[in-house]
Each structure stands twice: as C-alpha cells, then as structure tokens.
C-alpha cells in the first residue's frame, strides 16, 4: 500500500469513529440548533486531513491532530460570525475564551454524547425522529444502517430525518441541566438508541465486518455513564447492561482465526469472557429485583441462559421466556428466535409446522431458519432457503456463512449416497 493509499484508508476508518465525538462536543459547545454549522466544521476538518495526510504522512496521534484542527476551524468560524453581527462581537469581546476552550478528553466526549442524546430525545420530536436523529448525528450510523435497525426502508428513514432536522432548526432545543423527572421521561428513547447502536456493532447487517467493536464499546460506555446518573439507573438500564455484558462476553469466539463467522453452536466456550459474564450476572440480579419487566429484561434473561451448559431444560426455559416476550413485544426477530427455541425442545419437524404461522418472506433470517430446520430432512429445500437468504443480505460475512452451510449440505448428501 502506497503512502497516499494508507493515508486515505486511515481517514476513512477514523471518520465514523471521530465524527461522532466531534459532533457531540461541538454541538454541546455551540448549541444543538447550530447543527449545520457543526457539520461544516467537521467536514472541513476531514477535508484538510485528506489533503495533508496522504502526502506528509499520518500523524503520531491522528485523533489529536483532528481535534486540534477542529478547534482552530471552530475558532476561526466563530470569529467570522462575530465580525458579522454585533451580538456575537459583544460576546466575543466580553468572553474571548468561550469560543476556543474546546476539550476532547474522554470524559468530556462521553458526557457531551449523553447530553446530546438526552437533548435530541426531548418530547417535541416524534418517537422515530428522536431515534433516527440520534443514530445518525450522535452514533454515526448511515441511513441504510438506521433502516436495518428499525426494520424500515431508506426512503422512509430519509423523510423522518428531514422532518426531524427541520423541527430541530425551528424549535427552541437546548442542552441544559435536566431534572430527575425529565431524565426519566426521556429514558425510553435514550435506551432504545443505545440498544440499537450496540446491535449494529454486535451483528451488522450492512457492512463487510459483522462485528464492529467500536460501536459496541461506544454503546457500553454510554450505558456505564448512564449508570452513574442516579435518575437513569432504572431496572430497564440494568437489564440492558446485563444483556450487553452477556453478548460481549462471546465476542472472541464469534470469529475464527481466518475471519469467518462462527455460529453459536460451534463457538469455543473457553474463549468466553467470564469477567463480563460475572458482571452481567450482577446487573441481571439488580434488574430483576423489582417486578418491572421490559424488552431488555426478556433479552437479558435469554442471553443469561445462553451462557449456561446446553440441555433440554435450558431450552425449555428459553422457550418459556420467548412465549412471554412475544405477548408484549411481538416482532419478526422475537417470533423467529422463538421458533428456533421451539425446535430445540420439540424437534425440527414440529418447528416447521410452527413457522407456517409466520410470513416473513423478505427476511433473511426467516429463510435461514427454514434452511436450518430442513437440514436433516430435505437437503434440497434447505439449500433452496439458504440461497433465498443469501439474496436478502448484503453482508459478505453472512453470505459466506450461508454458502458454507450449502456446501456442508452437498457434502452430507454425497456421503449418504
């Protein structure tokens, strides 16, 4: 790789990770209504990196370089604004340090990130507007990724984002100290944002890399910061953190040395992080200390049982949880995962009868599950549904897993002949 190519690749990798941090800090400093101004600063920062790095070399501390340039651009931009209006000039003269004292240390980044998410989750915006805007500007997800996360389509998400941004410009949004009541009123939207961010990191449907540790770390750091805020330390948050810990404990076992995805049944359990499982258990017990039950409680309970040794009793517990889960939080994912658990308890033939009550023809997971259920009884149908699943996904890693399953079916058929 040439020096220029290396610089371009580095910039691409940094852009998603650092733009989120810059957006949070700059918006908190200049105000959420100045989102366009903030995005211009960030765009100019990365433009300068693309002009400088490929030729002069990548700095020893690329993130630090970006933050320094962003501060200088913000300072120059603010001074330009100040010269244009008396109001800004007065502000600049009376407090010249206010425009330049930007800090990008980790504490300020996480603190600003949370403050921004809580601000966007103000009740003036529509429920989907809050989530979409938070995922885009504060989590760095693309329109396509948001569409997958919300099981929607790109055009619908674009319209939601357009309306939310317009509303943001026209309203009196501000980042301010929130009362305990205000924090609790916004927690549902905040938790859903963090949950969807983690999910995109844990099992990306849109990128070549199924696991994206930067997003997982970002979501878990936000959750940990929320735990430090007393009004935010709810049973729902504790259940969510328990789920994160259980899921993250298996990260090292989900990818092979060659970079291919390892399905749950084939994972090396000795690689599971026992410290994370132990921490997940602590959050789990605290989350279930009250009668409150949320979607995160159900998912945490299922994830807990996945950390236990395989047995029929284990799958009976999981199926029972899914039965209760589906009554309150019905969705394609819950329904299909319930059928998988059903197959573990009652066998694949009965599970095939059970899945007939669902119709998710456009779902990759639907066809993949049917392929799995037909594996031992009808290899042609199993292969057909795996091929349909391939057509429903853009992830090269997921396609590789499905192609491997088809290959294994063909090998088994040859052996049986």
From TrEMBL:
One of its GO terms (molecular function) is DNA-binding transcription factor activity. Residues 186-287 form the DUF6596 domain. Residues 26-82 form the RNA polymerase sigma-70 region domain. InterPro entries: DUF6596 (IPR046531), RNA_pol_sigma-70_dom (IPR014284), RNA_pol_sigma70_r2 (IPR007627), RNA_pol_sigma_r2 (IPR013325), RNA_pol_sigma_r3/r4-like (IPR013324), WH-like_DNA-bd_sf (IPR036388). It comes from the Bacteria. NCBIfam families: sigma70-ECF. This is Sigma-70 family RNA polymerase sigma factor.
